[in-house]
Design goal:
This protein has 8 helices and 11 strands. It is an alpha+beta fold and 270 residues long. A hairpin with a 5-residue loop joins β2 and β3. It is globular and about 55 Å long.
Length: 270
Amino acid sequence: MAERRDHEEESDRLERKYEEGALLKDKNKEEFRVLEEVFDRLTLQAMLKLYGRGTIDVLYGAIKAGKEARVYWATRKDGKELAIKIYYTHTADFRKGMMKYIEGDPRFKRISRNPRRIIYTWTQKEYNNLQLAADAGINSPQPLDFYRNILVMAFIGEDGIPAPLLREMDPEDPQEFYNQTLEEMKLLYQGAGLAHGDLSEYNIMVWENKPVIFDLSQAMLTIHPMAEMLVRRDIQNINHYFGRLDVETRDHKELEEWITGGTQDLYKDT
């Protein structure tokens, strides 16, 4: 039995080596060299899996690097631009706070404590949350595929240049943009059944003069006990930012009631 297992593992190793070598000869040679410097073998295998599915055709350079993940620009065979988010699996700092956003979610009843598996679950959670947002008509990146610690989304921007973050670009009409953001927050809660929990000028892009909400990995279902607290945190962040732009912001409690469905018309007094 042990000899058979060793033989299978050696066969898998040789097959991976062949696939990786063939891919590097054909295309994306430099990009995969960069990936190899940052990510481990299992991540490279996951990338090859997505190539095999036809999800990705050409991978370009990184467009964003953070403490949790890197985001790369890529394209499909039909030319559609993609954002490839790859979570790190070899650093532990940001994993410590993940479990509180996963535990209690009925979609993930059996959660492995293995650090790598936590990242895989985190990636799946963000994909599922983005799908809920897309189904509800929220202005957010469309999720296209995921595998292990890699999430593939529609690219927000053009020709490899991502849309600016709200913190990088003041809206043409801050008051209108604030109102649109509130509408998205309401739709996220009532339509998608999610509370974002980390919404701020860092997690909103400005594209075609409209807010695009992203980074939904930590978002929780509204049935979760932490959901109301997350909504209050989002309201505080959004009101604080737009208040600095001299926008007439709404009362925190009033907003919470409106976003969660307690009142029908936020603008009845304006």
